[in-house]
Specification:
807 residues, Immunoglobulin-like, 42% strand, eight-stranded mixed beta sheet, mainly beta, disordered N terminus
């Protein structure tokens, strides 16, 4: 194969320079031979060859003898001669190049003269990268190996390294200290890794070393990659919260929070279970992730308690480190007394001196938000129920019991303590739908032992709302990515005269939801100290932790009996509401909202009510209805909490079209174009004029939807009860609310991206409260009639109406 550049130069020599030299020789004769002796010349000092195998001629121009060689012995290239004379060409042969560009020099020598011709063969672009660009290492001396990805083949030997040291200053350092030593040793670059050793960091400050690897390819282009090594002042360490686990006989997965400074070396830690006694191989699947230690415990079939420890070691070339103390695992062998009741529900008295269980207390005897305190009379609340109630979950958090003592004095259970409770003489009650268990009839004598503990002793359960099961009832759960659906005001938006300073009403549910469409009520008792502390409510998402319960709230429920959902959550301390303060931290966005926070009714050109955010229309479908502003109770402190004229009421209607035998509705129209997933209708409402007469509005309501404003569909599971607002009376009904109730309904996905959607909040029947002294059973036994006195008609009051979606 001929090189075209060589051929061109040769033609120029033959047609131009050579005839000229010949003519001079003819003119001057032989006596000019020594004077015209040609120096050692080549036609080019650089050749660029393709990556394919081939050959090319390299020409030398000389009138004497010369020698030729390659600058180094290489397997991929050769020349056909080692010497020659005159203008004899040299044939350069080369193999195919499957790697990076490569080069070798052809060296011509004549006497003291030398000419080098650079032969560069094309190839793949060089690859040079490290498995990690930054690592953090503990203060102990250690050998490290970092993976090196490259396609240099034997050229890896040409990689050069440099190390630049620095010290990370403390905040109180006026200037950055100078490095006190070169602490990277034995740096070696191999075909697939770079290895080195660190010296122990005895200084009081962190330090860094920037290791740069540089490769210069055959085209003189530099390729560099840098590894930054940060060495801490602390020795290798792993700590766990909790640092031990005690679990029931059931198979379970244990997780503990992990804090460590091993960085990428965490994956090299060896976890070895060490068993005490004859029972072995009951701990498996031990894993260490960035922030979690996790392992599985098999069911205990050993007929006795057992114990083991998980030992941790970090092997190295010069020995091994022990980065953590052993993690202790204890597994009990008590019976699961829930199995005593075979049916869906029932009750049994346990008469067995050997019956007991161990658990972790998740409530506190002095906390005011443990249990709903029932009305013992229309104007009296039995607060001792809260004081007598506790919740104890199994050591592994798998399930829990509600525990009811005979008196508040008997309840000495402190939060996070580990207890052993005797069940002899205790009544076990099983309730269905959802399945849950209560232990009652306990005295202080049933507490066999109580060892103080901390929050770190809890086995953490973190779930979304939709992941909750009946097994979670009466256990402590962290609900992730939740937020309040209606975050105006405080945790209890109520008239304090009927809530905080009297005994009429003792609990308010507030609705939480998440981006998956899950909803749950957070229950807040009227003696909870942080419920109206002046700081308001967080408006963003986060993690909320509390005790999962099932509760009925007749004043607020979706049914006459007070159903507010399968699960509710009780938060004992405000710090367990770890949500973002600002709406910018929310998973949701508002499409349209009416809130009247500026105490003004805005209207559209067609007379409908305009929203405070977004675009839309709001009206009552009864042509005779009117609207007006009224009071809201979203106060931030424990005064009356009155927000004057920050709510809207539709009034002067029976809420029933007797001619067509159908309900009237509050209607809202808006666009959902550009809406995200999980559209929801969120509103707060109540009924009445805060008097004992105007309370006879429909109890049962539902939500309907339409995209054409004509054909409406009932939203599944959208039924709810609207209760009258409280009024002053010594024998007030058990069904009145001291504030506006939260309502949240997830809308069909088909309503997204519609130019127009109409929703109806519509009366479902003429059932109403029986009287202003009605019990819960009488909450829906009255009937609205067309001849009912007009002063008994009940306005429908709204504090906020909003439509939201995921961002």
């Amino acid at each position: 194969m001929k090189n075209t550049l060589t051929d061109s130069i040769y033609k120029a020599w033959r047609t131009g320079i050579l005839p000229l030299v010949t003519a001079l020789l003819l003119l001057t004769g032989c006596e000019m031979d020594s004077d015209m002796d040609l120096p050692l010349n080549v036609d080019s000092n650089k050749y660029t060859l393709t990556s394919d195998a081939g050959s090319t001629q390299v020409r030398i121009y000389s009138t004497g003898e010369w020698s030729v060689r390659l600058s180094e012995d290489v397997e991929w290239a050769s020349i056909n001669r080692l010497n020659g004379s005159g203008n004899t060409p040299v044939l350069f042969k080369y193999g195919a190049n499957y790697g990076v560009p490569r080069a070798v020099d052809i060296i011509f020598t004549r006497g003291g003269l030398e000419q080098a011709v650079r032969m560069t063969q094309e190839g793949e672009d060089p690859i040079l990268s490290l498995e990690e660009s930054r690592i953090e290492i503990f203060s102990n001396p250690w050998d490290l190996r970092i993976g090196l990805d490259n396609n240099l083949r034997e050229d890896y030997k040409q990689i050069r390294d440099t190390i630049v040291y620095s010290v990370i200053p403390d905040e109180d350092d006026d200037e950055t200290p100078e490095p006190d030593e070169e602490w990277i040793e034995n740096l070696t670059v191999g075909t697939d890794a770079v290895t080195f050793s660190t010296l122990k960091n005895n200084s009081p400050r962190k330090r860094q070393a920037a290791i740069t690897l540089t490769y210069t390819d055959a085209k003189e282009k530099k390729h560099a990659v840098t590894l930054t090594v940060t060495q801490a002042t602390e020795e290798a360490s792993m700590t766990f919260t909790p640092d031990r686990a005690k679990t029931t006989r059931k198979a379970t997965t244990i997780k503990a929070e992990l804090k460590q400074n091993l960085g990428s070396l965490l994956g090299k830690v060896v976890c070895t279970p060490v068993y005490e006694g004859a029972s072995a191989d009951w701990i498996e699947n031990i894993t260490l992730e960035d922030k979690v230690l996790s392992f599985d415990v098999k069911e205990n079939d050993s007929e006795g308690p057992r114990r083991a420890s998980i030992v941790f070691s970090l092997p190295g070339t010069a020995g091994e480190l022990t980065p953590a103390a052993p993690f202790i695992v204890e597994q009990t062998y008590e019976a699961d007394y829930r199995t005593l009741i075979k049916g869906e529900s029932g009750q049994v008295v346990i008469n067995n001196p050997e019956a007991w269980f161990e658990g972790i207390v998740i409530s506190d005897k002095d906390n005011a938000n443990v249990e709903t305190t029932p009305n013992s009379a229309p104007n009296a609340t039995d607060y001792t129920v809260n004081a007598k109630t506790a919740y104890v979950q199994m050591l592994d958090g798998s399930y829990g019991y509600r525990v009811q003592f005979n008196s508040a004095a008997d309840n000495t259970l402190e939060r996070y303590s580990q207890v052993k409770i005797s069940l002899n003489g205790v009544t076990l009650t099983k309730e269905a739908d959802p399945e849950r268990y209560t232990l009652s009839g306990l005295t202080a004598g049933n507490i066999v032992s109580q060892t103080p503990g901390t929050a770190s002793d809890l086995i953490r359960k973190e779930k979304s709302i939709g992941q909750l099961t009946d097994e979670d009832i009466h256990t402590y759960v962290s609900l992730r990515e939740v937020e309040f659906a209606l975050p105006d005001g405080s945790y209890t938006n109520v008239n304090e005269g009927y809530f905080g300073t009297s005994n009429f009403v003792s609990c308010v549910p507030r609705t939480l939801y998440d981006k998956n469409g899950g909803t749950i009520s957070m229950l807040v008792n009227n003696k909870t100290p942080w419920r109206r502390d002046g700081s308001g409510m967080p408006k963003g998402k986060g993690t909320l932790s509390g005790i999962i319960v099932h509760d009925l709230q007749p004043r607020y429920g979706y049914t006459n009996e007070g159903y507010i959902g399968r699960y509710s959550v009780r938060v004992l301390e405000k710090e367990e509401i770890d949500l973002a303060a600002s709406e910018s931290g929310s998973n949701r966005r508002t499409l349209v909202e009416w809130n009247w926070n500026d105490a003004a009714i805005k209207t559209n050109t067609d007379g409908t009510i305009a929203p405070d955010k977004g675009s839309g229309s709001l009206w009552c479908t009864d042509p005779g209805a009117t609207n007006a502003l009224d009071n809201e109770y979203n106060g931030l402190t424990t005064g009356a909490g009155l927000n004057g004229k920050n709510a809207l009421k539709f009034e002067n209607t029976y809420w029933w079209n007797f001619a067509e035998n159908t309900g009237y509705a509050v209607a809202l129209k808006f666009s959902t174009e550009g809406a995200g997933e999980n559209l929801s209708l969120n509103f707060t409402n109540s009924q009445g004029n805060a008097g004992g007469t105007s309370i006879y509005g429909p109890v049962y309501w539902q939500v309907e939807y339409s995209t054409d404003g004509v054909n409406f569909t009932v939203l599944p599971e959208s039924g709810f009860c609207a209760r009258p607002f409280v009024f002053w009376a010594s024998t007030m009904t058990y069904c009145a609310t001291p504030g506006y109730a939260d309502r949240v309904f997830i809308l069909p996905d088909a309503l997204r991206n519609q130019p127009e959607v109409t929703l109806l909040i519509k009366a479902r029947s003429t059932q109403c409260i029986a009287s202003n002294t009605a019990t819960v059973d009488q909450g829906d036994t009255g009937t609205i009639t067309s001849d009912m006195a007009t002063n008994k008609r009940s306005p429908m009051r709204f504090g906020t109406i909003a439509v939201k979606s995921n961002k």
